[in-house]
Amino acid sequence: MKKIILAATAFLFLAAGISAQTHTVFIHGKSGSNHNGTGTTDVNNYWGSSKNTVSGSKYFVGYNGTTDPRTYGSARAQTNITTVLTQRCKGTQSCKIVCHSAGCYAIEYWLSNLGSTAASKGFKITKVTALAAASGGSELASALNGITFGFAGNAMDKALIVSTARSSFNHNNTGGVRIDHVPGYKGMFGASAILPGEDDYAVAYHSACGYNRTGGLSKCQGSLTQSEGIWPFRKSVTYKQYSGHYRAPSIGSAGLYQNHSEVKTSGWR
Prior knowledge:
Layout: H1 2-19, E1 21-27, E2 34-37, E3 57-64, H2 77-88, E4 93-100, H3 102-112, E5 125-131, H4 139-147, H5 155-159, H6 162-167, E6 179-182, H7 191-194, H8 205-208, E7 223-228, E8 235-240, E9 245-247
Parallel strand pairs: 1-3, 1-4, 4-5, 5-6, 6-9
Antiparallel strand pairs: 2-3, 7-8
């Protein structure tokens, strides 16, 4: 009888292991295209070949890349995030999320507004790998808005204004999910003159690393203190990553020599 019980237990354990699935969920950023979809197809190929650097089953949260990433509705980020994560990250299924740029803005907003932790809501999310996160906004969007007196730019551009992105939600509330940041510092003439500190030509480190305040930063780490201002009025300023935000363990504090698009290849981290 004891052998029968042990055999049955082993069978049940094996069956559970076979049925359990772990997926990678991709969430894209700003785009001039409509990538609307909630399945296994990378609609309009936002991720290109970079999605192949991640093994296993993959699902794609696609939406209209010109819309505000905080909004719900047809072809909107919040609605499609809810659909995919409810279908693929509960029960015997778990997920790792890979986001890029404004896609990180979208998932961080979603997590902060769950009303509790992701786990207590039944979601099994192992972590978020945030590639060139635009959750703290971009000075490029702020500059566009300023020089055109608010008349230029689509809904996505307006959502990415630094003051808007930083005040939109509680960045310290990640729903109990770890967010690992992967920043790039391969800038570009022109854009880098507007973006403070190191940047990937679209977002600066204060956003790409999840820091709690804006500034010109060259390192991605938990806390950073630097001297700022004009002599003799210089002072020490300390920057800290929001709670639940970290640098991806596989990269150094200097980040990666990649631009905003090239960082997409690091979803495996």
